[in-house]
UniProtKB/TrEMBL annotation:
Keywords: Ligase, Plasmid
GO MF: acid-thiol ligase activity
The organism of origin for this protein: Cupriavidus oxalaticus
Positions of the AMP-binding enzyme C-terminal domain: 429-504
Residues spanning the signal sequence: none
Family as reported in the entry's similarity comment: Belongs to the ATP-dependent AMP-binding enzyme family.
Domain AMP-dependent synthetase/ligase intervals: 8-379
Protein name: Long-chain-fatty-acid--CoA ligase
Keyword Ligase appears in the UniProt entry: yes
Classification via CDD domains: FACL_FadD13-like
Top-rank taxon: Bacteria
Length: 523
């Protein structure tokens, strides 16, 4: 398997079909591949041919898709840069990976100049913006025009395809090494679920540096679908793109789904003019979704199936898949809607204890995975690799259980477990209880220091617009749904929660005020 395989197939089978749309820009598969091959030729002239790294620091664009294909075509290794990082974090990833070429758009040309000046390994910066290339940078379009198309280098199998850095929320980021085989297996697994079916018009609204979005690129090329690209997520932009291009499928974080619905409610006259009937599948992930939000979304997008996936960068990123058949009233009643899904066809999953022994069904332990989608390891971090992959099994760092049907339930991040009075409390369970209250728009539960109990359960709550609720009412609501020792002992009300670029709540930021000076972050 090789990452550019799907593009080659599409060019041979449907060269004149539209491959990419962004605003008024459209390219057929033949036109797109021609540009990719010429950009690959330019990269080779810059020294990219035998696994050298090429980074991209940009909002979503057609050029981002070209980068995704041209780097492996040239023989290089992808290194997408998280646009939400600080310059220091960006610089670390570039230096750590030994990146030689950095491609940037207008939004990041200034920081790119700093990165090139302060970094140890970046030799060339390519400007992929709309204007004239700044001094010291190469012009993206000029490089394509000046270079003839080249043959695909055909790096494949276990050859390294990309280094994808995990979020820098704690310590330095780790570069996850994924091979062409890893990405190919993961893409095929997505197709088996029914995602990115032939003829799909897919909207890239999630940031393209993130593997959740990147995996859709791979799967969609495999089936010759149409890529519709938004520079970044906005509720209006997403809804207008669905209407304009007849989008069939997209992936969103639950926070994004809520923003869409809230915008539609606040702009009913405009949203009512948009044709959203083409939308047939909405995938959600990155964080759990409340039952109330899901039902609201189902009522709004009546033609769409809802599916969710659980995974991580280290799994390329496929782990489990929960199909539309589990998004029903019966699934809500049975509790199966809370599952993360069944393992993808490419992966085995089991639940183990601290000694790595598989636990009986229903018992909570660590989720571990094995399969062709498991990363090669962490770049330049053999000890971290050895800790994560043991006897062929990737230890996810997530706790969960598996039921008799084979459904995997994610209980929490192991590090998010709260120990209060020698009792273990999993924050996700508390959050699910809180989120079912009609006044709660979003919430996060953390452990904070408690002199008597070691830690106590603390809830950070965002209320719906115009809503109000007393702490006592929230406590009573929780007590109806979970054991008393799991209920929050304190509440904090905020306008927003701190979120990562893909909509995950940054609990480290919520913990900081309580644990600073403690010497550690748990009791």
């Amino acid at each position: 398997m090789y990452f550019t395989q799907g593009l080659h197939r599409a060019v041979r089978q449907q060269p004149d079909t539209v491959a990419v749309c962004c605003g008024d820009e459209r390219l057929t598969f033949a036109q797109f591949a021609q540009r990719v091959a010429s950009l690959a030729g330019a990269l080779r002239r810059l020294g990219i041919h035998g696994g050298e790294r090429v980074a991209m620091l940009s909002l979503n664009s057609v050029r981002y898709l070209e980068y995704d294909m041209a780097v492996p075509w040239a023989g290089g290794v992808l290194n997408p840069v998280n646009i939400r990082w600080s310059p220091a974090e960006m610089l670390y990833a570039l230096d750590d990976s030994g990146t030689h070429v950095l491609i940037v758009d207008d939004n990041f040309k200034d920081v790119a100049s700093r990165l090139a000046k302060e970094g140890r390994t970046v030799r060339h910066v390519i400007y992929a913006g709309a204007g004239k290339a700044p001094a010291g940078m190469l012009d993206y379009e000029a490089l394509i025009a000046a270079n003839e198309p080249v043959e695909d280098a055909w790096r494949h199998g276990e050859d390294l395809a990309g280094i994808f850095y995990t979020g820098g929320t704690t310590g330095y980021p780790k570069g996850v090494m994924l091979s062409h085989y890893n990405l190919g297996i993961s893409g095929m697994a997505s197709l088996v679920t029914g995602r990115c079916a032939p003829g799909t018009v897919y909207l890239h609204a999630m940031p393209m540096f993130h593997l959740g979005s990147f995996s859709s690129v791979n799967a969609l090329f495999m089936n010759g679908g149409v890529h519709v690209v938004l520079p970044s997520f906005t509720p209006q932009g997403v809804l207008e793109a669905i209407s304009r291009y007849g989008v069939n499928e997209l992936m969103l974080a639950p926070t994004m789904i809520q923003l869409l619905l809230d915008w539609m409610d606040a702009n009913a006259s405009l949203s009512g003019t948009l044709d959203l009937s083409s939308l047939r599948m909405i995938g959600y992930g990155a964080s759990p979704i409340s039952q109330a939000l899901l039902r609201r979304a189902q009522a709004t997008f009546r033609n769409a199936k809802f599916v969710q996936g659980y995974g991580m960068t280290e799994l390329s990123p496929a782990g489990t898949f929960l199909g539309d058949e589990y998004h029903t009233d019966a699934a809500f009643a049975s509790g199966k809607m809370r599952a993360a899904g069944k393992p993808y066809v490419c992966v085995e999953i089991k639940i183990v204890d601290d000694d790595g022994q598989e636990l009986p069904r229903g018992e909570v332990g660590e989720i571990v995975a094995r399969g062709g989608n498991v990363m090669r390891g962490y770049w330049n971090k053999p000890e971290a690799t050895a800790e994560a992959i043991r006897n062929g099994w990737l230890h996810t760092g997530d706790s969960g259980y598996m039921d008799e049907e084979g459904l995997v339930y994610v209980v929490d991040r192991l590090k998010d477990m709260i120990v209060t009075g020698a009792e273990n409390v999993y924050s996700a369970e508390v959050e699910n209880a809180l989120a079912s209250h009609p006044a709660v728009a979003a919430c996060a539960v953390i452990g904070i220091p408690n002199q008597k109990w070691g830690e106590s359960v603390h809830a950070v709550v965002v209320l719906r617009a115009g809503a109000s609720v007393a702490e006592a009412a929230l406590m009573a609501h929780c007590r109806e749904r979970i054991a008393g020792y799991k209920c929050p002992r304190s509440f904090e009300f905020r306008d927003t929660l701190p979120l990562s670029s893909v909509g995950k709540v940054l609990k480290t930021e919520l913990r900081k005020p309580y644990w600073d000076g403690q010497g550690r972050n748990v009791a």
